[in-house]
Amino acid sequence: VSKRRAVSKTALVLGAAGLAIGVVAALLVKAGNPGNMGLCIACFLRDTVGFFGGAGANMGAVAYIRPEIVGLVLGGTVAALVGKEFRARGGSSVLLRFALGFIFMSAALVFLGCTVRAWLRLGGGDLNALIGVIGLVAGIAVGTVFLRRGYDLGRARRLPAAVGWFGPAFAVGLLVLGAVATFVVKPAAFTVTPAGAKNTAEKAVIAKDGTVLKPEGAKLVEGAIVGADGAVISPAASVAAAKPMPGGLRDPFVLALAAGLGLGVVAQRSRFCTVGGVRDAIIWRRFDLLLGIAGLLGGALVANLALGQFKLGFEGQPVAHMDLFGNFAAMAVAGLAAVMLGGCPFRQVIMSGEGDADAFSAVLGMMAGAYFMHSFQFASSAKGLAPMAWPLLAVMAAALVGIGVWKTAPARAAAKARSAASDAATQEA
Amino acid sequence: MITVDARGLSCPLPVMRTDEAVKSSSPDAIEVLVDSGTAKANVAGFLADAGYSVSVEQLADGSYAVSAKS
Is A428 within 8 Å of chain B by CB? Predict the structure, then answer.
């Protein structure tokens, strides 16, 4: 038996990729994105859904097509085309992948961030994310048990080229809508959270310049928001404590798009994954992908310190809550779902750009999950978990285990058949 | 010579099937068929770390044959 290196030469590439992603994410926060949310696949897909769902789905505060997401998909496409790796493929449990994406997003919105943002929050000093990351590792560990027992969603096949272009075409459509809404006119049918707007505890909305946007006809009187009928809606203290709406915190459109494109290329070339690193370390003690995560964490940490954005502690962290068990459990469910998908949400977005229809199905599932979580007010807020969050997490965990057992049983039989076939081949030889 | 068909499998199954084949019969030569750039890189890296000398050939249908000899 030859000696195996724990870290191969691709590890350095991954470490550098992680570092670049972490630093760029911190810079995007400096440029206007919400705290520790320079890059968050779950949050950005959710905001993009908010553009379509709007106030009717309780998404008025999180409505904006994030150009970063569009850039990631198209950056993945460009890198795959240049590297001759663009392949129209799919057909490996497409609907189950939609369901796994749905569950991943639901869990991420209980934690308040995806597996990328969990590491970025930790790199910003948010210790709630440390609890989340411990949950993430636990969830991934459960996923490796299924993998070792033969969990398999089935083979993807080559598909007609047109099917592979669904993901990139979808991204181009979003890009056009987002650019029109930003630079031309906001289409009446859609919702865009006003840039820099704040909302009060009573859900009144104040624009950057102090005018009251919601409810209609309300005005600022001596610091309080007073309705058209003269009744006080938000007292002055509440107006003073109004918080910026996450969807209204954003970096310039072109900068966000450029950053997304660049990171999309980096992620496609390096195969960066925020879940695979932990998974491979558990299964094989292989640390290549884990070095990518270390780079992400280190890059975010150093850049946040340099930019004065680092704040260590549990309290008052941006877009976060302090529910210890909730953070653990939500990220455990998200980690398990991601392992069952074969990669983190970042990878699913990049693979959507590479022609992978299965990954695109998972991304659509994530978007449906975001709509579901906000429509029924299951998503967490800075105050903590929604009342129904625990039953929801329990149902999702049970669903994951159910899918895991279902997709492991036939796989084990196939593994037995494989080993029987290889025995027969050996005997013949 | 053992051939592992890992085409169309999600991460990390191509590497798991390769690992399974290496462990069960310690072959002198192994060929793994994959059809994504990620699987190609992962399998090639895994076999190199296992002590094989590895070469990759792109096949006519766009998939890859990762060949390894001890």
Answer: no
Whether residue B8 and residue A276 make contact (CB cut-off 8 A), yes or no, is: no
Distance from CA of B52 to the nearest CA of A (A): 9
Each of the 429 residues of chain A gets a pLDDT tens digit; together they read 344 555 567 889 999 999 999 999 999 999 999 999 999 999 999 999 999 999 999 999 999 999 999 999 999 999 999 999 999 999 999 999 999 999 999 999 999 999 999 999 999 999 999 999 999 999 999 999 999 999 999 999 999 999 999 999 999 999 999 999 999 998 889 999 999 999 998 889 999 888 999 898 999 999 999 998 999 999 999 999 999 999 999 999 999 999 999 999 999 999 999 999 999 999 999 999 999 999 999 999 999 999 999 999 999 999 999 999 999 999 999 999 999 999 999 999 999 999 999 999 999 999 999 999 999 999 999 999 999 999 999 999 999 999 999 999 776 677 777 777 666 665 655
Interface of A with B in 4-33 (CB under 8 A): 4-5, 8-10
Residues of B in contact with A288 (CB under 8 A): 45
Alpha-carbon span A64 to A35, nearest angstrom: 16
Residues of B in contact with A355 (CB under 8 A): none
Contact A87 B35 (CB under 8 A): yes
Q: Is the dihedral of CA A38, A390, A293, A371 positive or negative?
A: negative
d(CA A19, CA A35): 18
CA distance between the termini of chain B: 11
Judged by CB atoms closer than 8 Å, whether chains meet at B46 and A286 is answered as yes
ipTM above 0.90, yes or no: yes
Sheet holding B64-69, edge to edge: B2-5, B29-34, B64-69, B53-58
A343 part of contact set with chain B, CB < 8 Å: yes
Helix (H, G, I), strand (E, B) or coil at A188: coil
The CA distance from A147 to A279, in Å, is 10
Residue A283 in contact with partner chain B when CB distance is under 8 A: yes
**Closest in B2, B13, B48 to A8, CB measured:** B48
**Helices (runs of H) and strands (runs of E) counted in chain B:** 2, 4
